[in-house]
Design a protein that fits this description.
about 170 residues; two-stranded antiparallel sheet; four-stranded antiparallel beta sheet
């Protein structure tokens, strides 16, 4: 189990009905069905041998980076309305009509009927994913025979893609 039925992140993971634990069966909070990481390094071929003053300035540059793409984290949709009448609105899930349960497309969310439980499962929605490019430009400069100095600049999230996370409160 990725979470006890206590306090999970980003939402509380208490059961909406303590007598129906089958309704709590869900995907893990760690579930990420898609993850891709690509790392690369390119040595720029201009004046690679760094001969002379011009070669030491223009040669020896390298570009490296990582690309990361990942599915979002599952979370539980709650209504904030105490439909079940147990005095706790933090565990009541909405009642939904027909639609695609994986993407939640076509659903109409509404609180469950008074005194009842919602039919949407735990961790049934998925938060935003990750799409990120990190790049570094660096150069090794030979100072003395076996010694080098490195100049480097790093850029994280190069294309300024928004990286949303789920709220934890």
């Amino acid at each position: 189990a990725s979470e006890s039925l206590g306090t999970g992140t980003p939402t509380l993971q208490r059961p909406q009905n303590n007598f129906d634990f089958d309704a709590e069966w869900s995907r893990s909070a760690w579930d990420r069905p898609h993850r891709l990481i690509v790392s690369w390094l390119w040595e720029i071929p201009v004046m690679r041998d760094q001969q002379g003053a011009v070669g030491r300035v223009l040669g020896g540059w390298r570009v490296a980076g990582n690309y990361t793409a990942q599915s979002g984290q599952p979370f539980t949709v709650i209504t904030g309305v105490d439909s079940s009448g147990d005095g706790d609105a933090a565990n009541d899930r909405p009642h939904v009509g027909t639609g695609d349960r994986e993407t939640l497309a076509g659903y109409t969310f509404r609180p469950a009927l008074s005194g009842g439980d919602g039919n949407l499962g735990r961790n049934s929605a998925r938060g935003p994913g990750v799409n990120r490019w990190d790049v570094v430009l660096f150069k090794n400069i030979r100072v003395i025979k076996d010694h080098q100095v490195q100049i480097r600049g790093e850029i994280f999230n190069l294309f300024n893609q928004r990286q949303y996370t789920l709220r934890t409160d």
